[in-house]
Design a protein that fits this description.
Elements: H1 2-8, H2 14-20, H3 36-52, H4 59-79, H5 106-110, H6 115-134
Helix pairs in contact: 1-4, 3-4
Length: about 140
């Protein structure tokens, strides 16, 4: 679970570059860390390394990490442009456009109906976590 949770935020490590170096000139979803091919290559390299080191039992962690990263990209695709076919195509995919109605910019996402999807996912995770904690188990 820890690997899955840690990997689920890995595509957003590009925010450090976005704010500190790029000075917010380009949408951070346009960076390489928001393309599936980048993470498939990383997972492939890790898998080959683990197999070479005879640690194939650890491949489950690579698989869980990759699935978490791809889920992040799927969720980003709801309201942000994700280049799923890069480097074969620069076409960006998204399900809905969030109109720019408010300042600062993040209020546009906060007040858009798509934010309810993320809130529902968070509440589901919290409820499962709390149920697991408070559930009495026979000994």
């Amino acid at each position: 679970m820890g690997v899955a949770l840690a990997c689920s935020v890995l595509p957003d490590v590009d925010l450090a570059y976005f704010y500190l170096i790029d000075q917010r000139r380009h949408a951070h979803h346009d960076y390489l860390t928001h393309t599936p091919i980048f993470w498939l290559a990383i997972a492939g390299i890790l898998a080959v390394g683990l197999i070479a080191c005879r640690k194939s039992s650890w491949l489950i962690f690579v698989a869980m990490g990759l699935l978490s990263i791809l889920l992040h990209l799927v969720l980003d695709t709801v309201a942000a442009d994700i280049r799923w076919l890069y480097p074969f195509s620069d076409r960006a995919f998204n399900l809905v456009q969030v109109p720019a109605l408010y300042q600062p910019w993040y209020l546009n996402f906060l007040f858009h109906w798509t934010s309810w999807i993320e809130l529902a996912i968070c509440l589901l995770g919290i409820s499962i976590f709390l149920k697991d904690i408070f559930q009495t188990r026979p000994q």
